[in-house]
Each structure stands twice: as structure tokens, then as C-alpha cells.
Amino acid sequence: MVTEQQVLDALRAVKFPGLTRDIVSFGFVKAVRVKGELVEVDIRLTTANPQVGPQVEREARAALAQLPGVGEVKLSVTVETPGKAPAAPQVLPGVRFKVAVASGKGGVGKSTVAANLALALRQLNLTVGMLDADVYGPSQHLMLGCTEPPRVNEEEKILPVDGNGIKVMSLGFLVEPDTPVIWRGPMVMKALQQFLEDVAWGELDVLVVDLPPGTGDAQLTITQQVPLDGAIIVTTPQDVALIDARKGLLMFQRVQVPVLGVVENMSAFACPHCGYRTEIFKSGGGRRTAEALGVPFLGEIPIDPEVVVTGDAGRPIVAARPTSPAAQAFVRLARAVVEGLGGKIRS
Ligand SMILES: Nc1ncnc2c1ncn2[C@@H]1O[C@H](COP(=O)(O)OP(=O)(O)OP(=O)(O)O)[C@@H](O)[C@H]1O
Ligand SMILES: [Mg+2]
């Protein structure tokens, strides 16, 4: 008997018309049910183009017909026209793109990637903000070198704090250093809501959102509150990371946020003296993960002790050592992210 996973994998062959991404990674496949030889698939698309629905239906049928063990296919394709839904109150009106940085598990370098991605986007002449939504271990205020607490303007809005040219807002401003905070769900949501509604972000090209590690309820709630345009998943070279990355992908699919791709952090070590590459962990896991998940691979960030030193010092490597291989890898990542957003931002 065919499995739901096989059905999903077959549907990955169906690209959203005009784009290179497939309907599964976009999160348009809402349900798959297998009952013996009968396969039922619900697809819900958002598009203003009347040809897209029938084309996706045709291609999905063709893809499923090729699967061994499939008898009858019941396909339900619903098309929603954008703009028809009642307009939600606009969150972050001056911010063009909101991009989350996530990871299936902790300690993979998510905050380091987020901070350096923000700086690399800044280097591409974009205006950039950082929303540190890591309720368990906020770190962006330190990593991006913010020395002052946020102030409030005449309109009673909180002003984000400048750190290396990035507008930063972090839960870390609200808690004493080294005090473990046990945030209860409602408190977290309230603080986050304030960050979205009461912070004077101003006009930004990109707001980078550093999410808490993992894929539990807290992460899901945050991704529902922040109207994200895309997400990147940070992983490490080891094979086991695939399982965590998959959980991340599923989480974003649930809230219909497109995953821009997977980035592999702490890749091979390039010796600063001779340039020789040593694969400290295994290599290629990030690329394989991206392939297995059907999302773009956004590149590798080498492991480099300077990444740690510069991050701890509040001037991450992209700002402190822009010519280093790690900094250049972050700039390539930034370009890939811009491209993933449709190249719609000037850079
Ligand atoms: N490419 C790299 N090379 C060397 N060290 C790195 C690299 N990326 C991150 N690190 C180091 O790994 C440690 C963990 O990184 P970081 O705090 O960014 O991870 P995280 O995923 O945000 O962790 P948490 O789950 O605690 O939020 C830090 O000490 C950081 O300096
Ligand atoms: Mg972190």
C-alpha cells in the first residue's frame, strides 16, 4: 500500500506555475488520506490567476497516477483569491519582509547566523531590524553590541536600540543578565505582542526574527503571531540533524510560511594559516537535508573560532572581519535570502 509520505513526495514534482518551488514545500497540500488504493488529497492555493488551479490539478493527477499501488485518486483543489479575506490589522506596517531564523534544536548557531545574516543584509545596503524572540535565551542585544536600554518616544512607542547599524529589540532588555527567566506562555505572548505593536520599527527592508530553538508550542505561537514572509532553518553537518530540520519545516508548513531553505552551520574548518579544510563533523548533511525536504540549500558557514570571539564581543564576524571566509559565507547567505524573497528588495 502506498504511504502518505510517498504521496507527498510524488506531489513535490508539481511546481507552482511560474515558480521553481513545489506545492508541498509551499504548504499548499493541506491533507493526504490513503484508504487502501484510494488516495484523497486536499490542495488549497492562493492565487489570482484562474489558470493555476486547473494546471496544478492536472499535474498533481499525473504525478499520482505514476505511483504504484494507487487506484482511485480524489483530488480537491480549492483556490482562494488573495485580498478576499477580511484584512487583518496590519502588523509591522513599515517592514517589507519578515524572515525567521529557526532550528529544530538548540545550540546549532541559530542566533549567530541570525546576527550575521542581519549584518550581511545591512552590507547589501538594506535597512535591517532584529527581533529577538528567543524567550528562553535572548542573546541578540549582546551579540549585536547594544549598550543602552530601549527608550520610549513622545508617542509612547518603544524605540529599538541600534547595534552595529541594526535596529534591535530583545527580551534580553527586559530581564536582568544571568537571571534564569521562566516565562509563562501568556507573558511571552504579551511581550511579543508589544514588540510587534508598540515598537517604533520605522521603515525596514528586512526584519530578522531569532526564534527560540525547537518546534514546540511556543515556536508555533510566535510564528502565528508574526506575519512571516519566509523562514530559514539552521542545521549542522551531522545526519541526525535531518529529523530536527524536518520538524522545523512541518511547523512552518502548518502556518503557511514558505521555507526559504536550509543553511548548514559549523561546516568544515578552514585553517586560517594554510587554508586546508578539515571536516570536523561529517560534511554535506545540510545539502542532503535540504534535498530530502525539497527546499533550497542556502550554503555552508565554516566553523571558525573567530565567529565565537567576535560574537561574544558584540561585533559579529561580518562586521569585525568582513574579508574572512565565514563573513563571506554569511554574505552569500544574505544574497540567497534576498533571492528567496523573490529578489524584490533592492540590494
Ligand atoms: N560557524 C561557527 N563557528 C564557530 N563557532 C560557532 C559558529 N556558529 C556558532 N558558533 C558558536 O556556537 C555557540 C552556539 O551558538 P548560538 O548561541 O548562536 O546558537 P543557538 O542555536 O542560538 O543556541 P541557543 O539554542 O542556545 O539559542 C556559540 O558559542 C557560538 O559562538
Ligand atoms: Mg540562540
Provide a descriptive summary of the structure in words:
With 347 residues, the chain is of the alpha/beta class. The protein has two domains: 4-80, GMP Synthetase, Chain A, domain 3 (2-Layer Sandwich); 95-340, Rossmann fold (3-Layer(aba) Sandwich). The protein contains eleven helices and 14 strands. Strands 4, 5, 8, 9, 10, 11, 12, 13 and 14 form a nine-stranded mixed sheet that branches. Strands 1-2-3 form a three-stranded mixed sheet, with helices on one face. Strands 6-7 form a two-stranded antiparallel ribbon. Helix 3 packs across helix 11, helix 5 (185-197) packs parallel to helix 6 and helix 7 (241-254) runs parallel beside helix 8. The chain starts with a helix and ends in a 7-residue tail after the last helix. Residues 110-111, 134, 137, 139 line the site of magnesium ion (MG).
